[in-house]
Specification:
This protein is mainly beta.
Length: 774
């Protein structure tokens, strides 16, 4: 009996020892960054797991023996590792190689969590740091840089505003590290020019309606991701000095720029601080004529101060703070002169502008960000508290009675609490859920600088819970679906409208509270098996309170010279985006394409009523396609091209008419060629073509084109970049904007049908710079 009991005890101990054996470890990429969401399994068994937010993994109940451990994931080469199990716990440290198929680039904006392009069923454009560094040698105008690189985005306006620049025919939400810069309650079109290019690490553009960040992303999101600290040195930095000017007429055109940056890492603490100062000269057209100073980039003083500090408590927990200050003011010694739409442009002549200086006196952005890679089981946490304080002043105008300068003030305070939970039910069913809540308080107003209230302060409070599911089905199908509940309260005080243009003003409006509630959702499917053809389909919605300020300032009296906020048309816009597309990577060749349809029951166009731009709330449908392709001919020679076609109509009382060109971009094509004749010498040539859009006839009553309906002719631009590196520290670079000195009018100059916008584009300009890094 005793022998039997001893045998049972030994058998039990052996069984416990066997079942207790497991494999644990971490998996990182070649940059030693933890890689989540990789599938790991033991070949020939049913044992599997998914790497966690910190790259950790565990496979339990593994019998002793020799195995092949396989790790796979989109954007990475499959890793196969021989493993021999003898001890109760086997610990591994694995490194996986990013693949070269083009789908491994990381994007954070699409799902508010790190993802690779191959795991996002939507159209995304990423402008890399390398592209920004090269093309900012041609121009530091961020509007132009974006439009040169983003399919579907209207070409830059050659002014300090992005008025008329749309993404796929609709408005976009501009952000800095997720902090909204756009002012959709009263859109001043100054949101794109809100930070200096010197502190932008990369730009992520999510195209198509999306509600993932809330109000205003009808056409998509543009997120400026700021620079990070250099983790490889305790102290490093760089100095950039450059000069620019006109090649058609140098007089008064010279400008200068200096940018200084320091960065490093001290144990658990890392930092980056940067400052930029720029003074631009007078811009001139292809004939050497001074371009009108109206909203011009001429004679601007630009200042940017940036700091980002981080502290790593341990491998899983990090605290980071960021602050950015941006200022751009025009100090023009010229005034607008002459001009008539369709006949001759407005030019600049020496003089003094009345009123206040135009520009942005300040734009403050700051955040405090805490990240925990494993706050509880398989779940990471990100908490972001942010603040923005923005003030911009427009040009002096007799549009108001009496004349003056209008301005936009906007203050935003917000919090984002973001969880990401991984799940692994089966080798053919695993993924993650991103969930949390957004809180935002946005106070926006449009006063005149003399104290008059043009648009009263609108106080928006938004509480929005959301959840986003991403799961893999049968290994090769990626499914994504999400919901967001918008719960908004908008407080508007009592106010009295003022006279401007042909609007008489003097209407007393009883204020109040406007509630908005909406449930918006998205879903998408991507098939990931073949890099040569990686297709997706998606449906997504966006929520937008479109430019309420325009509506509020045009209030009409109902009785006794007064009305109520509850009578004015203030409905929100829900936009639906349907899309099908693909990515393709075959050796040295890559391509992508998409076809999209965007619909809304309420529109966002403007129409001219007695000389005043009035919102038109008609149903709309926008559709189009985008194609891109690239090829690496040689290690030192590559080329890429992109083509975009967008078109749209509105339904006004059952009659379908074309949307104005202030909404719809003409066809656009870009071709980029990069070549390095020597290891130290780089060359880049960038070609941009803007097509024809002539959809409209003159108004039979006025014999003139209506607002936004001007005939747009085509034009082509060629830009040049070249740089020579003397050594690892010092380099010199030269950029030429409009190399062939094309004489042209930008798209919006032609489309708006307003003499005050009929301004030529810049002629050939040079930018010569020197950089020293240490």
């Amino acid at each position: 009996m005793k022998q039997y009991l001893v045998l049972c005890a030994l058998t039990l101990l052996v069984t416990l020892q066997t079942t207790a054996q497991k494999i644990t470890g971490t998996i990182r990429d070649t940059a030693q960054t933890a890689v989540p969401m990789l599938r790991l399994y033991l070949a020939g068994t049913q044992k599997h797991t998914v790497s966690g937010p910190d790259g950790s993994f565990t496979i339990n109940n593994v019998k002793p023996g020799s195995y092949k451990l396989i790790a796979t994931g989109i954007g990475y080469n499959t890793l196969e590792q021989a493993v021999t199990i003898t001890d109760s716990i086997t610990t591994l440290s694995l490194t996986i190689q990013p693949s070269d198929i083009g789908l491994n680039e990381v994007v954070v904006t699409a799902g508010r969590n790190k993802e690779t392009l191959g795991t996002v069923p939507s159209s995304i454009t990423i402008i890399s740091g390398k592209q920004l560094r090269e093309q900012s040698a041609i121009t530091t105008d961020i509007n132009q840089l974006l439009s040169m690189n983003v399919p579907g985005l209207t070409l830059g306006t050659n002014t300090s505003t992005n008025k008329g620049q749309t993404l796929r025919g609709r408005g976009m939400l501009i952000m800095i590290d997720g902090i909204p810069q756009s002012t959709p309650l009263r859109n001043g079109d100054k949101d794109m020019r809100s930070i200096d290019v010197s502190v932008i690490e990369r730009v992520e553009v999510i195209k198509g309606s999306t509600a993932i960040y809330g109000n205003g992303a009808d056409g998509g999101i543009v997120n400026f991701i700021t620079i990070k600290a250099n983790p490889n040195k305790r102290f490093s930095g760089s100095t950039d000095i450059s000069a620019s000017g006109s090649l058609t007429s140098a007089a008064n055109s010279l400008g200068a720029r200096v940018a200084q940056q320091f960065s490093g890492r001290l144990n658990k603490f890392d930092y980056v601080v940067a400052g930029t100062y720029e003074q631009t000269g007078v811009n001139k057209d292809a004939k050497g004529q001074v371009i009108a100073p109206f909203q011009s980039l001429s004679q601007n003083e630009n200042v940017n101060l940036f700091a980002k500090l981080g502290y790593n408590f341990n491998d899983n927990n990090r605290l980071e703070v960021m602050y950015n200050y941006y200022r751009t003011m025009q100090n023009s010694t010229y005034v607008d002169s002459g001009g008539k739409f369709g006949q001759r442009p407005i030019i600049g002549i020496v003089g003094t502008n009345p009123g206040d200086k135009q520009g942005t006196p300040y734009n403050h952005n700051a955040y405090v960000n805490f990240t925990s890679k494993n706050i509880f089981r398989n779940t990471s946490l990100n908490v972001n508290l942010y603040y923005q304080d923005f003030y911009t002043v427009f040009e002096y105008s007799d549009f108001y009675a009496p004349p003056g300068n209008s301005a936009i003030t906007s203050k935003k305070m917000g919090a984002r609490v973001n969880f990401n939970t991984l799940f692994n039910f089966h080798p053919n069913l695993h993924g993650d859920v991103t969930w949390g809540i957004d809180v935002l308080n946005d106070k926006t107003a449009q006063p005149l600088t003399d104290g008059r209230s043009f648009v009263p302060e609108m106080n928006m409070k938004n509480l929005a819970p959301y959840a986003q599911l991403k799961t893999y089905l049968f290994k090769d199908f990626l499914v994504k679906a999400g919901l967001r509940y918008e719960n908004i309260r908008l407080d508007i005080p009592d106010y009295t409208t003022i006279k401007f243009g042909n609007y008489a003003g003097g209407v007393f409006v009883k204020g109040g509270n406007l509630p908005y509630e909406a449930l918006v959702f998205n879903t998408g499917l991507r098939y990931t098996r073949f890099p040569a053809f990686n297709p997706f389909v998606s449906y997504s919605q966006s929520f937008s309170l479109y430019d309420l300020g325009r509506t509020l300032r045009l209030a009409k009296a109902v009785s006794n010279g007064s009305t109520s906020i509850n009578i004015i048309e203030t409905k929100a816009i829900i936009t639906n985006n349907y899309e099908a597309g693909f990515n393709s990577n075959i050796g040295k060749f890559n391509a992508s394409g998409s076809y999209f349809i965007s619909t809304s029951d309420l529109g966002t166009s403007l129409k001219d009523v007695n000389g005043v731009a009035v919102p038109e709330r008609a149903p709309e449908r926008v559709q189009g396609f985008e194609l891109t392709a690239g090829y690496q001919f040689l290690p030192n020679l590559s080329a890429s091209a992109a083509y975009t076609h967008v078109e749209g109509k509105k339904d006004v009382n059952g009659v379908k008419t074309w949307l104005p060109t202030t909404r719809i971009t003409p066809d656009k094509m870009t071709v980029n060629v990069n070549y390095s004749p020597l290891k130290q010498w780089d060359l880049g040539v960038y070609y941009i073509y803007s097509g024809v859009r002539k959809r409209f006839d003159p108004n039979p009553t006025t014999k003139e084109y209506d607002l936004g309906n001007g005939p747009v002719g085509d034009f082509s631009l060629v830009n040049l970049y070249t740089a020579y590196r003397f050594n690892t520290a010092a380099s010199i670079r030269l950029g030429v904007d409009n190399l062939l000195n094309a004489d042209y009018y930008p798209v919006m100059s032609q489309a708006r049908v307003r003499t005050d916008s009929y301004i030529k584009g810049s002629g050939a300009r040079f930018n010569l710079g020197f950089r020293y890094a240490f």
